C-alpha cells in the first residue's frame, strides 16, 4: 500500500511538472491508500468506475484527458476490478500519431488484453504499420506489444517485419526482435523453424545486449537437440572468457560482477553441451578454472555463479583439478553461517559425490551440523544427501536417523517419502536379518497406512523366498526372527491395518514351523487380533485364514487339533456374518477340520507359497469336454468375427447401443416431405408384419446381412399395393450411423501371479582418482564434541572409492527370476454356444401395433421366440460345462458359481494338476503369498461333497493369497 501511495504522489508531482495528470488522480490514489478496509477501497474504486464510464463516453474529449483516463483504468485493473468498458479506447490510442499517446496505448493494451482476446485483431494492422516506422521508439513499442499480444494465428502477419528488424541499425530494436522471435518459438516452434540460423548470426552481434538476448532461444533449442549445436562450444567458451575477463562495458556489471546473468546462462548451456562429451568438455576446463579463481564469493550473485559452475563441472566429463576446486567452494558453502549457502553446499555435495564419493569424507562434520540444524528445509536436503551416500557400512545409522525424523514430522506427504526411502535402503544394505525385520516393524508402526502397500507385498515375498540360495538355515532363521518380533508387538494398540495383515500372514505360514510356539498359542493370538479389530473385515479375514493354515499344518503332521473356545466362538460369529467372504472362510475352516490328513496336506501343503504354476493358455485340457459335447449334438464354437447375424441374448445389448448411436444429434437439414400417392387398387387383406415390410437391417445386428433365401417374396405389383409409405419415417430421426456396437462377448480379466519383483539396483558411482591434495591441511582444526565425532565416524567411516557390494551370505534377496512362464488366465472360455439362426427374419419387437393375420402366413409370436432363445441358451451352457445329463434339473446355486462342480472329477488322471489350475483360474487369483484365495467352493453343510469341493482348490491354496472382505476374489490392493 505504501508503494501505491508513492506511485500516486510521483504521478501527481509529475502532473504538476507538465505530465498532464490532474490533481483528481492524486486524490484517488490518496483515498485508496488511506482506506481502512477492503470494503471501503471497493467503494472508492466503484465510484471511480462510474465516473470514468460517464466521462469516457463524452464527445470530443481532449487527448490529454483521454490519456489520464486510460492511466486511471490501468490503476483500476491493477486493484483487481473490471475496466473492460475502456479497452476499446486504449486500442484507439495505439493509432495516435503522438509518440507519448501511442506508447501509453501500447502499455495499456498489453496490460488489459491477452493473446486470445477479441480485440487483438484490431491491433495487428497498427503493429504492422508501426514495425515499419522510422522512429525506433515506435518500433520498440510495437515489438513489446508483439511479444505480449501476437498469438499463433497472427504470427505470419508480423513475422516478415520482425525478421527484417534483425538487421536494424539500433541495438535496442535488434534485441527486441530476437525476443519476439523467441516468443514465437515458444508459442509455435514450427513457425520459426526455418529461422534458426538467424539466432546463430545474432550470437556474433557487436552489442552485448543482443548477444545476451540470443542466448535464451539458443538455450531452448539446445535443450531439445544437443548434437546439432556441438559446433558452438568454442563460441560459447570464448564469450564466457571475455565476460569473465571484464571486457564488457561497466553498464553490464551487477554488484561488481561482470554480466553475471549472462555467465549463468552460458554455464547452463555448457553443462548441456559437455555432458557425456569428453572433447567438448576439455575445451571448457580452462575457462571454468578461471571462474573458480576469479569469482568473488562475498556477494550473493558471486556465490550464484560459483554454484552454477559446480553444477557445470558435475555435468561434463570429470576433471580432477576442477573437482578439487568445486570441493573447495562447496566446503566454503557448508561452513557459512547463512542457511541459503548451506543449502547450496548440500546440493552441490550431492552432485559431486556421484562422481567421487571420497569428497564426502572432507565434509562429514558439516553434514552432521546441517542434519542437526533446526531449519527443516536444510534438514530435508541433508537427508537427501545421506540417502545418496548410504552403503552397507553406514546404513544402520542413516536409517535410524531417518526413522527418528519421520516420527517427529507431521507432514504425511514427506513422511511417506521418508518411509519408502527407509524401506529401500533396508532392502539393499541390511547387515542382518534381525535388523531388517526390526527396521520394517518400526516403519510400519510409525508410518501407519502411509506406507505403500507394495512394501508389505515385498516384505511378505522376501520372508517367503528367503535369500534365494541353498542356505535353508538362514531362511529359517529369518522367518523365526519375523515370527518372534511379530508376537512381541501383536498386542500393541493402534497398529495399522496393512501391518496387521502382514503379521497374520507370517504367523499363519511360519508360526509353528520351528516348533518354538504351539498351535494353540498362535491361534489364540490370532483370535485376539480378530477380536481387537472387529470393524476391519480384511484383518479378520487374514486372521481366520491364518488359523485355518495353522490347523491344517497340524492335521497334516498327524496331530490332533482342538480349537480354543474363543476360536470356536469366532467361527460361529463369522458363519452368520453379513460378509459372504467371512462366511465362506468360516465354513472352509470347519470343513478342513473334518478332513483326513492326506486331503488336508494336498489342499494346504507346508511352505508352498513360492511354487511356480504353469497354465495352459489355450485350455487344451478342455478338448475332451468339447468333443464330448459335440458328439452329444452341441453346435460348434463360432468365433466372434463370424457371429454376424446370429440371434442371441447379447445382441439385445448391441441393439441398445446401436439405437443410442442412431439417436445422436444430426446437423444436416431435413429432406422435404414427399407427396403421398393415394392407392388406386382396392384394399386387400394384409399379410403379417414380417411379410409386409422385410427387415433388411435389424438394429441388433453387428453388420449388414442379406435376407435369408426363405424370406417370402412379393411381386412387383403387390409391392406397389401393399408396402407402407415409410419414406420419411427413418429420415425423420436421422440416418443410422456406421458405428459398430461394442462386442458383447464376456471375457475374464487377465490375471498374473509373478513370483518375483525386480528390485532396482543401487545407484552406481563413477570412481575417479583420489585427489592429490588433502583438505585436512587447509582447514583449521576446531574443537569437536565426542558425540559428533562418533556420529561422523558412523556415517562416513570406512568410505572407499570402490562401490561396495553386499556379501551373498548376508544379502537379502529382493528379486527372483521365475524359470516357468507367468501365470495367466485365458480371456475366453474354450467353447461358447450361440442360438441357431432363425429361418425367418427376426420380429420387430418395437412394433406395438396389432398385426393383421392373413390366411396364408401365420404370425410369429416374439415372446415365444424369446422363450425358445432363453431355453436354448441354458441347454447350450449346460453342455459347455459338461453337464451329466440333459434332463438333469438345473442347479440354481451353479448359476452363481465361477467354475463347474465336476470339472476336476471328469478330467483325465494324468492332467490333474493342469486341470486344477485352469479350472480355478476364473475363481481365484494366485500370487506368492500363500493363504486362502477366496474360492467359491460349496462350504460344509451347503454342498453334497465338501472334500471334492476343497480338493478342487488345492493347488490354488498353495499360493496362500488372502482375499479382502471388500473383494472376495483377492486382496488386490496389497498385491499392487
Automatic annotation (TrEMBL):
Pfam families noted in UniProt: Adaptin_N (PF01602)
GO CC field: AP-4 adaptor complex; endomembrane system
Region (Disordered): 732-860, 927-949
Glycosyltransferase among keywords: no
Source taxon at top rank: Eukaryota
Compartment annotation: Endomembrane system
InterPro entries: Adaptor_Complx_Large_Subunit, AP4_complex_esu, ARM-like, ARM-type_fold, Clathrin/coatomer_adapt-like_N
Keyword Transport: yes
Compositional bias per record (Polar residues), positions renumbered to this chain: 751-783
Clathrin/coatomer adaptor adaptin-like N-terminal domain segment(s): 58-593
GO terms for biological process, alphabetical: intracellular protein transport; vesicle-mediated transport
Family statement drawn from the similarity comment of this UniProt entry: Belongs to the adaptor complexes large subunit family.
PANTHER family noted in UniProt: ADAPTIN, ALPHA/GAMMA/EPSILON
Record's function text: Subunit of novel type of clathrin- or non-clathrin-associated protein coat involved in targeting proteins from the trans-Golgi network (TGN) to the endosomal-lysosomal system.
Subunit structure and binding partners: Adaptor protein complex 4 (AP-4) is a heterotetramer composed of two large adaptins, a medium adaptin and a small adaptin.
Designated name of the protein: AP-4 complex subunit epsilon
Organism of derivation: Macleaya cordata
Amino acid at each position: 500500500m505504501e508503494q501505491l501511495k508513492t506511485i500516486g504522489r510521483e504521478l501527481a508531482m509529475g502532473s504538476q511538472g507538465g505530465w498532464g495528470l490532474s490533481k483528481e488522480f492524486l486524490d484517488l490514489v490518496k483515498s485508496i491508500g488511506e482506506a481502512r478496509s477492503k470494503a471501503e477501497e471497493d467503494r472508492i474504486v466503484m465510484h471511480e468506475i462510474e465516473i470514468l464510464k460517464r466521462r469516457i463516453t463524452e464527445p470530443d474529449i481532449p487527448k490529454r484527458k483521454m490519456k489520464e483516463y486510460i492511466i486511471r483504468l490501468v490503476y483500476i485493473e491493477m486493484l483487481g476490478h473490471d475496466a473492460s468498458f475502456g479497452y476499446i479506447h486504449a486500442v484507439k490510442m495505439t493509432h495516435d500519431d503522438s509518440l507519448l499517446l501511442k506508447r501509453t496505448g501500447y502499455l495499456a493494451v498489453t496490460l488489459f488484453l491477452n493473446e486470445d482476446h477479441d480485440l487483438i485483431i484490431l491491433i495487428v494492422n497498427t503493429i504492422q504499420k508501426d514495425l515499419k516506422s522510422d522512429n525506433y521508439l515506435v518500433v520498440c513499442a510495437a515489438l513489446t506489444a508483439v511479444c505480449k499480444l501476437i498469438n499463433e494465428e497472427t504470427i505470419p502477419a508480423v513475422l516478415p517485419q520482425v525478421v527484417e528488424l534483425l538487421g536494424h541499425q539500433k541495438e535496442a530494436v535488434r534485441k527486441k526482435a530476437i525476443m519476439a522471435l523467441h516468443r514465437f518459438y515458444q508459442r509455435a516452434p514450427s513457425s520459426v523453424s526455418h529461422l534458426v540460423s538467424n539466432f546463430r548470426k545474432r550470437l556474433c552481434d557487436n552489442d552485448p545486449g543482443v548477444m545476451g538476448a540470443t542466448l535464451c532461444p539458443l538455450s531452448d533449442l539446445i535443450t531439445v537437440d544437443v548434437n546439432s549445436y556441438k559446433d558452438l562450444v568454442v563460441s560459447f567458451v570464448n564469450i564466457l572468457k571475455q565476460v569473465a575477463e571484464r571486457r564488457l562495458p561497466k553498464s553490464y556489471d551487477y554488484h561488481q560482477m561482470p554480466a553475471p546473468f549472462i555467465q549463468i546462462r552460458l554455464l547452463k548451456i555448457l553443462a548441456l553441451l559437455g555432458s557425456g562429451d569428453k572433447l567438448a568438455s576439455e575445451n571448457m576446463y580452462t575457462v571454468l578454472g578461471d571462474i573458480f579463481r576469479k569469482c568473488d564469493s562475498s556477494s550473493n550473485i558471486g556465490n550464484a555463479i560459483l554454484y552454477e559452475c559446480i553444477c557445470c563441472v558435475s555435468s561434463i566429463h570429470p576433471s580432477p583439478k576442477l573437482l578439487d576446486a568445486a570441493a573447495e567452494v562447496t566446503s566454503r558453502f557448508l561452513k557459512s553461517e547463512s542457511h541459503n549457502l548451506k543449502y547450496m553446499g548440500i546440493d552441490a555435495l550431492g552432485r559431486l559425490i556421484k562422481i567421487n564419493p571420497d569428497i564426502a569424507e572432507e565434509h562429514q562434520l558439516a553434514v552432521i551440523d546441517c542434519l542437526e540444524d533446526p531449519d527443516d528445509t536444510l534438514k530435508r536436503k541433508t537427508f537427501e544427501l545421506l540417502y545418496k551416500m548410504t552403503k552397507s557400512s553406514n546404513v544402520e545409522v542413516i536409517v535410524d536417523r531417518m526413522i527418528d525424523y519421520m516420527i517427529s514430522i507431521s507432514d504425511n506427504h514427506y513422511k511417506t517419502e521418508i518411509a519408502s526411502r527407509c524401506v529401500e535402503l533396508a532392502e539393499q544394505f541390511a547387515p542382518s536379518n534381525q535388523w531388517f525385520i526390526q527396521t520394517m516393524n518400526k516403519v510400519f508402526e510409525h508410518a501407519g497406512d502411509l506406507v505403500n502397500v507394495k512394501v508389505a507385498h515385498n516384505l511378505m515375498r522376501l520372508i517367503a523366498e528367503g535369500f534365494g540360495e541353498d542356505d535353508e538355515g538362514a531362511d529359517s532363521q529369518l522367518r523365526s526372527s519375523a515370527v518372534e518380533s511379530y508376537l512381541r508387538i501383536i498386542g500393541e494398540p493402534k497398529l495399522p491395518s496393512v501391518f496387521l495383515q502382514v503379521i497374520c500372514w507370517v504367523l499363519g505360514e511360519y508360526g509353528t514351523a520351528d516348533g518354538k510356539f504351539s498351535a494353540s498359542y498362535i491361534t489364540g493370538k490370532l483370535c485376539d487380533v480378530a477380536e481387537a479389530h472387529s470393524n476391519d473385515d480384511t484383518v479378520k479375514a487374514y486372521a481366520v485364514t491364518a488359523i485355518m493354515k495353522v490347523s491344517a499344518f497340524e492335521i497334516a503332521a498327524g496331530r490332533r487339533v482342538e480349537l480354543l473356545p474363543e476360536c470356536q466362538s469366532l467361527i460361529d460369529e463369522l458363519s452368520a456374518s453379513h460378509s459372504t467372504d467371512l462366511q465362506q472362510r468360516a465354513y472352509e475352516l470347519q470343513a478342513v477340520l473334518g478332513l483326513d490328513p492326506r486331503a488336508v496336506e494336498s489342499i494346504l501343503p507346508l511352505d508352498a507359497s513360492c511354487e511356480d504354476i504353469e497354465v495352459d493358455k489355450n485350455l487344451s485340457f478342455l478338448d475332451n469336454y468339447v468333443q464330448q459335447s459335440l458328439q452329444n449334438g452341441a453346435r460348434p464354437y463360432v468365433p466372434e468375427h463370424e457371429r454376424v447375424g446370429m440371434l442371441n441374448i447379447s445382441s439385445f445389448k448391441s441393439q441398445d447401443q446401436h439405437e443410442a448411436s442412431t439417436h445422436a444429434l444430426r446437423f444436416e437439414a431435413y429432406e422435404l416431405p414427399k407427396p403421398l400417392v393415394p392407392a388406386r387398387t382396392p384394399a386387400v387383406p394384409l399379410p403379417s408384419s414380417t411379410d409386409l415390410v422385410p427387415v433388411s437391417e435389424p438394429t441388433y445386428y453387428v453388420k449388414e446381412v442379406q435376407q435369408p433365401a426363405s424370406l417370402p417374396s412379393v411381386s412387383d405389383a403387390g409391392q406397389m399395393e401393399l408396402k407402407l409409405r415409410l419414406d420419411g419415417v427413418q429420415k425423420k430421426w436421422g440416418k443410422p450411423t456406421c458405428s459398430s456396437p461394442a462386442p458383447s462377448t464376456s471375457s475374464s480379466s487377465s490375471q498374473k501371479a509373478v513370483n518375483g519383483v525386480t528390485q532396482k539396483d543401487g545407484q552406481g558411482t563413477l570412481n575417479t582418482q583420489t585427489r592429490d591434495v588433502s583438505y585436512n591441511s587447509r582447514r583449521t582444526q576446531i574443537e569437536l564434541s565426542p558425540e559428533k565425532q562418533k556420529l561422523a565416524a558412523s556415517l562416513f567411516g570406512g568410505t572407499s572409492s570402490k562401490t561396495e557390494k553386499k556379501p551373498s551370505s548376508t544379502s537379502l534377496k529382493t528379486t527372483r527370476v521365475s524359470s516357468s512362464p507367468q501365470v495367466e488366465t485365458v480371456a475366453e472360455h474354450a467353447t461358447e454356444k450361440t442360438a441357431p439362426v432363425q429361418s425367418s427374419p427376426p420380429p420387430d419387437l418395437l412394433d406395438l401395433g396389432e398385426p393383421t393375420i392373413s390366411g396364408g402366413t401365420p404370425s410369429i409370436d416374439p415372446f415365444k421366440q424369446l422363450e425358445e432363445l432363453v431355453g436354448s441358451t441354458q441347454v447350450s451352457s449346460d453342455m459347455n460345462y459338461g453337464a451329466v445329463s440333459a434332463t438333469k434339473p438345473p442347479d440354481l446355486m451353479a448359476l452363481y458359481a465361477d467354475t463347474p462342480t465336476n470339472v476336476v472329477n471328469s478330467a483325465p488322471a494324468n492332467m490333474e494338476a493342469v486341470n486344477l489350475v485352469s479350472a480355478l483360474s476364473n475363481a481365484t487369483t494366485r500370487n506368492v503369498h500363500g493363504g486362502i484365495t477366496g474360492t467359491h467352493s460349496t462350504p460344509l453343510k451347503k454342498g453334497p461333497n465338501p472334500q471334492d469341493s476343497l480338493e478342487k482348490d488345492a493347488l490354488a491354496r498353495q499360493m496362500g493369497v488372502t482375499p479382502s472382505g471388500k473383494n472376495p476374489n483377492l486382496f488386490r490392493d496389497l498385491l499392487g
